[in-house]
Amino acid sequence: MKETGKYSFGIGDRFSHQGKAQLQALMKASAELGIHITPVWNKSNREHNIVHSEPSDTRAEADAAVKALGYTGSCFVDADHINLTTVGRFNKGVDYEGDPVRFGKEFEEDILVIRYAVKMFGLPADLKLSVHSGSDKFSIYPVMGSLIRKHDCGLHLKTAGTTWLEEVIGLALSGGTGLDLAKLIYRKAIERREELCAPYATVIDIDPEKLPDPDEVETWDSRKYADTLRHVPGCPDYNPSFRQLIHVGYKVASELGEQYTAALEANAEVIAGCVTENIYERHVIPLFGE
User: pTM for this structure?
Assistant: First the structure.
């Protein structure tokens, strides 16, 4: 049986354009921090159904990224493994909803249970905790990082969903037609809010009163849109409800078809920079940086 190594990140993205940018972040962790993080490309069946993609598309994205960057380490493509019984309140795309101290206590208990199970039942030595919907859980990354160092144990963190949001941020920052497209996605998403939110009802908390009017959003410049969407705690413009609505709104982008994918290609450099920075600076560094 293949082993994923001590640390691994679940990456992948809705439209299979950001594999290279994601892998660059993990390679940067190896080069600058000496931390090897195995990439595990994943995409849920729900996402495949919404954007009309196939599991083979995820494999093709992974293969293309590995080839483009000359990556020689291990990598994997994962089948979806989540259902409503495995989601304890890790909302999509926003910070942890709960007490970080209590989380730390339970996280450490889980580490010890896994260690005991490996010893007693002969389970794989690299068996590790997987934090699903793990992206953007900034308040508990220092807790997790401290505990995996304390017990010298592994971790798998799923971060795929946050990449779609960085695509929209990158479009907004590109200005022009990219910003116009980001605004269009929001307008259509708010018009279809109930439909888009329904499949994610158990993992999002959107306050409709905090969603700006689309006509107001039309007046925003690139920076205002990006700051409202980007998850930077303490930023006065950051709006978790806005972010969660865009998070579930990728169906809108899928229906735009070539209009959307052409925009990704036209603004690839800006978007890739956002994707790599997000994974490395906001996820890798808080987890593994001393």
Answer: 0.85
